Amino acid sequence: MPKIHVQTRINGEDIDFLCESRQSLLEVLRDDLGLTGTKEGCSNGNCGACSVLLDGVLVDSCLVLAVETAGREVSTIEGLATPAQLHPLQQKFLEHAALQCGICTPGFIMAAKALLTNNPKPTEHQVRYWLAGNLCRCTGYDKIVRAVLDAAAVMEKA
Amino acid sequence: MAEATAEYKVIGTRPIRPDGADKVTGRAVYGGDMRLTGMLHGKVLRSPHAHARIKSINTAKAEAVPGVKAVITVKDFPVAEDRMANLGEMAVNVKLLSNNVIAADKVLYKGHAVAAVAATSPHIAEEALGLIEVEYEVLPPVLHVLDAMKDEAPLLHESMTTTELGQKTDKHSNIANHLRFVLGDPAQGFRDADVVIEREFDTATVHQGYIEPHNATALWNEDGHLYIWTSTQGAFVVQRQAAEILGLPVSQVSVTPCEIGGGFGGKISVYLEPMAAVLSRKAGRPVKIIMSRIEEFEATGPTPASHIKVKMGAKKDGSIVAAEASLMYEAGAFPGSPVGAGCMCIFSPYAIPNMQVDGYDVVVNKPKTAAYRAPGATNAAFASETVVDELAEKLGMDPLELRRLNGAKEGDRRVDGPTFPRIGYLETVHAALEHEHYATPLTGPNRGRGVASGFWFNVGFQSSVVINVNADGTVSLVEGSTDIGGTRASIAMQAAETLGVPYEDVRPTVVGTDGIGFTDVTGGSRTTFATGYAAHEAALDVLRQMKERLARRWDGEMEKEFEGQAERATVRITPDDVTYADGAFKCAKDAGKSMAFKEVAAQMARMGGPITGRATSQPRGIGGAYATHIVDVEVDPDTGKVTILRYTAVQDVGRAVHPSYVEGQIQGGVVQGIGWALNEEFVYSDSGNMVNSSFLDYRMPTTLDLPMIDTVLVEVPNPGHPYGVRGVGEVPIVPPVAALANAIYNATGKRMTHAPMSPGYVLSKLLE
Question: Is the pTM of this model over 0.90?
Answer without folding.
Answer: yes
